[in-house]
Design a protein that fits this description.
With 50 residues, this protein is an all-alpha fold. It has two helices and no strands.
């Protein structure tokens, strides 16, 4: 069994990376890629909760 604190840290790091990528893509006006990344992360998050 994994340490829940490690899982929480991984989720925080993933969230920070994801948020930075979305803001970067939006800044570059690459809205399609930003939206795709957002949807991919959202679907992945939902699948992990199921």
């Amino acid at each position: 069994m994994r340490d829940p604190r490690l899982d929480e840290l991984i989720q925080m790091e993933t969230w920070d990376w994801w948020k930075a990528q979305v803001f970067y893509l939006r800044e570059k006006k690459d809205y399609a890629s930003a939206e795709a990344l957002f949807l991919e992360f959202k679907l992945t998050s939902l699948e992990s909760k199921a």
